[in-house]
From TrEMBL:
Catalyzes the NADPH-dependent reduction of ketopantoate into pantoic acid. GO terms for molecular function: 2-dehydropantoate 2-reductase activity. Transmembrane segments: none annotated. Its EC number is 1.1.1.169. Residues 6-158 form the Ketopantoate reductase N-terminal domain. Belongs to the ketopantoate reductase family. This is 2-dehydropantoate 2-reductase. PANTHER family: 2-DEHYDROPANTOATE 2-REDUCTASE, 2-DEHYDROPANTOATE 2-REDUCTASE-RELATED. Keywords: NADP, Oxidoreductase, Pantothenate biosynthesis. It comes from Marinomonas primoryensis. The lineage of its organism: Bacteria, Pseudomonadati, Pseudomonadota, Gammaproteobacteria, Oceanospirillales.
Length: 315
């Protein structure tokens, strides 16, 4: 592989964070923005864990930013950091600048956009699906804050033999689909409930929401154990108890945060609903009345009040 710069696409919270991180790892990085240029220097307020104490340090990173039509080089390593609904189009805007054997990685929530992206790649390009539990907030066009320490993993979307290694070796996993379905399960509970009821993540643990959360988890456990579910091989371990532990832990750890879907609804932005609840509804071999209500509560704002009542009447 040639030593060309990494191309990071999307100057949102995660894109800026990864542009800085890749630069810190010693790589040359070019960043593609859509509406607002972050300029030449990005400030990263990072969170580190030293001797059990979390510390914040601000660093400045020189990164070259481009609009897609300003690119002139060819790239071997690409990291797409858009929301799932923008993924394929964002790639297509720069596709002419990506080499025929490039590593193309993406880091978006939900499932479905990865296959859309795979469908426009050439046979020798490798798609690396990624997930991250880092928390990052964009404060200004050129300023981000690391709000939660987490992990990031990449795995081949279509596993090859012998298995390939991601350009950053330590981030490679062989079971990315399992990790993605685990993350999707958490997002399918916390995101729509917090967005529909306008509450912080920790509030879903309150007594008022216990019957709803419990019914949502049990419906999810039914899909995940169903032999005809398209991810059955990767989801058998997600029993009701296992899901409850995962959701409770994340809700507790992020109790004062707003979920990304809650924030999208609050700011009247497009949500990733179709790639979270929508993915489950489209791929489930059984009816999912609760997930359908959650999907509708997000997709149809005019039904939200009615949906809230229905969801709270679940026993
Ligand atoms: N932030 C976080 O802490 C976490 C985020 N995630 C996931 O990571 C993904 C990215 O999240 P986040 O960074 O917060 O989202 P943002 O909305 O902050 O950033 C997405 C960026 O992608 C840009 N974009 C969209 N289309 C294009 C395009 N064609 N060319 C160039 N840029 C484009 C958008 O540009 P524009 O400014 O024009 O809209 C926007 O700046 C999401 O799927 C999210 O769910 C996962 C875990 C944590
Ligand atoms: C884990 C969680 C729920 C944290 O807010 C998240 O991934 C999101 O908001 O999309």
């Amino acid at each position: 592989m040639k030593n060309t710069p990494w191309l990071v696409i999307g100057a949102g919270a995660i894109g800026l964070f990864w542009a800085c991180k890749l630069e810190k790892l010693g790589n040359k990085v070019h960043l593609v923005y859509r509406s607002e240029s972050p300029g030449k220097k990005i400030t990263l307020e990072s969170l580190t864990n030293e001797d059990g104490q979390q510390k914040i340090t601000a660093t400045k990173h020189k990164i070259k930013s481009f609009a897609a039509d300003e690119l002139s080089e060819q790239y071997d390593n690409v990291l797409l950091c858009t929301k799932s609904f923008d993924l394929k189009d964002a790639f297509l805007k720069v596709a002419g600048h990506i080499t025929d054997d490039a590593n193309i990685a993406c880091l978006c929530n939900g499932i479905g956009a990865q296959e859309e992206l795979q469908s426009v790649l050439s046979d020798n390009q490798t798609l690396w699906a990624g997930i991250t539990s880092e928390g990052v907030l964009k404060i200004e066009a050129n300023h981000i804050k690391h709000t939660g320490l987490g992990d990031t993993y990449f795995g081949e979307w279509r596993p090859s033999t012998p298995a390939k290694t991601f350009p950053i070796d330590s981030l490679t996993v062989t079971n990315i689909r399992q990790r993605m379905i685990e993350k999707l399960a958490v997002n399918a509970v916390i995101n729509p409930i917090t967005a529909i009821f306008n509450i912080h993540n920790g509030d879903i643990l309150n007594d008022e929401f216990k019957p709803l959360v419990s019914a949502t988890l049990s419906e999810l456990a039914n899909i995940f154990s169903h032999p005809k579910f398209s991810y059955a091989e990767q989801s058998q371990h997600l029993t009701c108890e296992n899901l409850k532990n995962r959701v409770n832990t994340i809700a507790q750890l992020t109790r004062l945060n707003r979920s990304s879907m809650h924030e999208d609804i609050r700011l009247q932005r497009q949500t990733e609903n179709s790639f979270i609840s929508g993915f489950l509804l489209n791929n489930s071999p059984i009816d999912l009345p609760i997930q359908q209500l959650l999907f509708n509560g997000i997709a149809f704002p005019e039904q939200r009040e009615e949906t809230q009542k229905k969801l709270l009447s679940i026993t």
